Amino acid sequence: MSGGEIRERDLIWRISEILGGVDNDDCALIEAGERYLVATTDMLHRQTDFPDIMNPWQMGWMAVAVNLSDIAAMGAEPFGLLMAVGLPPEADLYFIDELFSGFRDCAAFYGTRILGGDTDSHQELTITGTALGWVERYLVLRRSGAHPGDLLCTTGSLGGAGGGLYAWQEERLDSPFIEKLLEPEPRLKEGRALAKSGAVTAMMDNSDGLALSLSDLSAVSRVGFLVYEERLPLAEGLEEMVGRQRAVEMALSAGGDFELVFTVQRERLEAARRACKLTVIGEAVEEGIWMERDGERRRVEARGYEHRIGKFGNRK
Amino acid sequence: MSGGEIRERDLIWRISEILGGVDNDDCALIEAGERYLVATTDMLHRQTDFPDIMNPWQMGWMAVAVNLSDIAAMGAEPFGLLMAVGLPPEADLYFIDELFSGFRDCAAFYGTRILGGDTDSHQELTITGTALGWVERYLVLRRSGAHPGDLLCTTGSLGGAGGGLYAWQEERLDSPFIEKLLEPEPRLKEGRALAKSGAVTAMMDNSDGLALSLSDLSAVSRVGFLVYEERLPLAEGLEEMVGRQRAVEMALSAGGDFELVFTVQRERLEAARRACKLTVIGEAVEEGIWMERDGERRRVEARGYEHRIGKFGNRK
Q: Does A93 touch chain B if contact means CB atoms closer than 8 Å?
């Protein structure tokens, strides 16, 4: 059985066992006085992670954004990133300038900066970003903590990045979904405000698709989820472009949206609403992951962004 | 001009300019109350960074060790690492077990641990480690700070990893230098003790070779160095294996030794000696990097580990 064939969960379980920990979150948590230091790392490759039409500035932006999204998912505030870059032989100075400007601009957009890094030569462009942040101990949000009866919510809209992928494959390069795919905007402000609201019980990002996020939240919180199909906030214009069924499928399983998916105590929904714009898409139940349409329920498969093997994390 | 052809210094200068900072150290420094958080990242590839004879456990050990060496060079104490791994299709479960055990064992050997990480699929094994540590503000050691007249010192011996590379190429696989090459031991204890000694003015590691370290220290501290050839602590048995001239060349330019190179105030040499075993190999001078033998001086070229493009770092 090779790396490509090993099932994600088996691999993550094995790695967690070897490393002596099993808690999985978007970031590792390190105790530091009254705060936690949160830290996360993500490796991206030219062929598997960056659509062909992406320019080098967008690759830089993306490599920073994916890591900041993990910081957002903990309710934390970023204070810097390290970027390790394997540069291919064809990378010229223009490419390098644009790539590193993309790093800088995405970090600056979110009030943070690139602290340092490493560069070397590699056949294929490979970028590993590491983001660091702080969060007060009493504010940290984790994948664990959801209880049956909690409301299931999401920021923003769903399926837009999937629509971008579709538009790209259909060569409809003027589609507004393309930018959504190429220049994602992680929800740092929203994550922080939700943490401060005191209303949220569990949270993560949906960068690999909503279905995988629900599967992960479900496994760690030991709850199930029921999603009401008609409540999914489909990205504007998505249904018109691809039809209802495919739009719902994209909202569930397409990666790249970088929204926050979280559970809220029912009686505190108003506090969560004051924190940021959100949509209630369902609720936490005892077990299983279900989608309901016209009163009928079907099981949701844990499918999402295919290249992912997965993140692992553990803490003291 | 492509990534492979761009001169290291030009590239690092350009990147520093784009990112808005120029301080280069082994780690980025982040203010955190009375301490600094230190953070460093290193990307390693199967073909360019791991000798063919390395087993997967040793690859794991190495990927952690290179990062801990950067923590050591700041006088800091590590508190954890993140490991991002691109696994090639041929990586089976045995390989994965051994690799991650290597991560775990190297971290544990130095009293620290793997906090989390990321795995995905890639054509070639690629590992990016990120190490995090703490150092008191008043103890931190940097590449800047050396003054003319300071004594130039190194921990341990020099050229052993170069000897390992030679023995490997000569197929002398029973050579004790092979282990030195494949299982490096960063000088964390020594780095910490040297920081506490109050005697050290500047420090970095020599993972890319002594000559490159001197070049880097020279550039940041704005001093020169004079090295006395007969004082170089050549690894035991190296001269017998490769001859005097080649042994000296290896001590200067071969990468992989992971010793600490540092400058000490002359009047505090005894305090540094109490901190750890060290060899005085020369002194800081006004300008240039020189090697003296039998009263004759020659310039030392800034040559070292060839695959490196380089690290960049900046701080507030």
A: yes
